[in-house]
Design a protein that fits this description.
Elements: E1 2-4, H1 10-23, E2 28-33, E3 44-45, E4 51-52, E5 55-57, H2 61-66, E6 72-75, H3 85-94, E7 98-104, H4 116-122, E8 127-129, E9 131-132, E10 139-140, E11 142-145, E12 161-164, H5 166-170
């Protein structure tokens, strides 16, 4: 598991690990939720414009169908997947596959996001990344939403979100 706030480098780290998988000549399948079309409809793209080919899917069960005879499965933006994503990852791991998952551990209100708590609970290894607070420069772990509209899921980038520490996230600006 790779988790953290927005702008912490989760996708960058996922891409780095998956590129190493390819260097090792291991077979990998990479997935992202089809709702995430911010940078590219098919590729996983980091804020630094690094990219890797993926398969956009609507539901986590599709991963079981498409990830046949592979060594590694990569999954980005796991917080957007349905309630079965943890079971899918567990099934793949029990088949002997390495499963590398990245996602936001908390939503913009600081609450656990989607199925991330369940994924974190079954993970063998967890990497929690942090951004830098744009207000004070300390370690940031909050994806602060700058606009008051929208529900829990509001796709956006720096125009809508910014990384903040707990203290600065509590400030309303």
């Amino acid at each position: 598991m790779i988790c953290g706030s927005m702008f912490s480098g989760k996708t960058e780290e996922l891409i780095r690990r998956l590129k190493r998988v390819k260097i090792a000549n291991l077979k990998a399948e990479i997935f992202k939720p089809s709702v995430d079309v911010r940078y590219d409809e098919v590729k996983i793209v980091s804020h630094d414009e690094n990219r890797i080919q993926s398969t956009p899917i609507d539901n986590s069960q599709t991963i079981l169908l498409l990830a046949q005879d592979v060594d590694v499965v990569g999954i980005d933006e796991a917080q957007f997947f349905d309630n079965e994503i943890a079971n899918v990852c567990e099934t793949l791991a029990c088949r002997g596959m390495r499963v590398i998952v990245a996602g936001l551990d908390m939503d913009y209100t600081g609450k656990p996001f989607g199925q991330m708590p369940n994924l974190l609970a079954i993970a063998d290894y967890i990497t929690k990344l942090h951004a830098i607070c744009v207000v004070c420069g300390n370690i940031a772990n909050v994806s602060y939403r700058k606009v008051a509209t929208g529900g829990q899921v509001l796709l956006g980038e720096k125009d809508i979100y910014e990384p903040r520490c707990r203290v600065c996230a509590a400030l309303k600006s």
